[in-house]
Design brief:
homodimer; 261 residues; 5-stranded mixed β-barrel; globular
Chain lengths: 261, 261
Amino acid sequence: MAPHGDKSDAADETMVAKAEKRPISTILIVMAMQSEALPVVNKLNLSEDLQSVFPKGVPWVRYRGFYKDLNINLVCPGKDSSLGVDCVGTVPASLVTYASIQALQPDLIINAGTAGGFKAKGACIGDVYVASDVAFCDRRIPIPVFDLYGLGLRQALSTPNLQKELNLKVGKLSTGDSLHMSTQDEASMVANDAVVKDMEAAAVAYVADLLKVPSVFLKVVIDIKDGEETTAEESSQSFAALERAVTQVTDFINGKCLSDL
Amino acid sequence: MAPHGDKSDAADETMVAKAEKRPISTILIVMAMQSEALPVVNKLNLSEDLQSVFPKGVPWVRYRGFYKDLNINLVCPGKDSSLGVDCVGTVPASLVTYASIQALQPDLIINAGTAGGFKAKGACIGDVYVASDVAFCDRRIPIPVFDLYGLGLRQALSTPNLQKELNLKVGKLSTGDSLHMSTQDEASMVANDAVVKDMEAAAVAYVADLLKVPSVFLKVVIDIKDGEETTAEESSQSFAALERAVTQVTDFINGKCLSDL
């Protein structure tokens, strides 16, 4: 994946090479839940953009600000206008990511949020994962080639230095629009070798790949899919861990090029 | 649902009232499969727009032309650039619908395609359905209010005259990203009282609702979910029925206002 361009393929490749050697400037952070986003907004001292870059009628929210040498844009799909709940899931995440890339031309996307983890794969509540790759777990199209399309496997930007420096766990991420897995979703996640499961990442990756923006997926384990229910205290600790992780990653990125990550 | 505007709510309502009394001018036809779209493209004498209104890199295709008094735009999410198959499903459908509304400001969206039908609900291969309402069948979020958000039930534009004049069947439509239903998807479709099942409509409806564009969902039954497999001849007949249905609906719309439908 490479930065968004508007030239021929050869020119694109030159731009990619240049971008990899240029300090990262504009970051797009995509977070599905506003309650997860607000601690990050406060920590990075961002403010809500009241002159929206988005069309009238959409509930999408952008928080913006400069943090160190970075131009930070944190976007959320916002609240459903009829129901008042966060617009979680793949469709709103893909739309707000698309519109944000078009409006803001970011150098890098960070999709951050809480996720479910698989104990059998070593995940514990509060663990911070950076995804090596992402795929859908609930798009079963058993026709040759369409099956691969449905899976939608995409690699995240390679970030070996970031992972080592911040001591992050690395694993495969599966995305599905249901909070509770069907037997078939579960089989798909086992086939994906997934360690964590969220509701947006593979859709964000799809859009980022279409528009050639490198992406990082940062997920904090808030519940265990194959274990006990999460306590309120554990939930609260996961939210705090998410804010710390996004801040640490942002600090690490500051002043660096894509190839330094 | 009402036409796209850029004014206050009161002004919006006035615009809606006016739009309902103004002949429909610009139509956006959204079709997921290019093989289904091409007979319609040929019949309506549309031509591919080579100076794309879409960003570089996206596979989305637009066919355009004037047919009688209508400015017709038929868009497809196109082929996956790596895999070469049609970009079916909710995420690409929502993106191409969003970008097309932004670029073209249509008066009306027609989402057309083939779909699965339920024999137990009276569907037969080749039947042409116009959806009364659409919902997702694969977004299970068993938390109060989020459950309704996941379902995403939306009413289509009311079209009693169109339905009567063209002798169309009317029924509820469920959308899911899997071709083959899980037990849970099936239970959700029974709960939705669905007669037909496709892979895009509820996502198109979500975007159309966000941006206040009235929408019609026209689906031809190509296979029976609770019955025998479709023969090659039946598939071919369903494609022909889809082309005829889109043409007949377009003919019916020509010269009419939204409130005449």
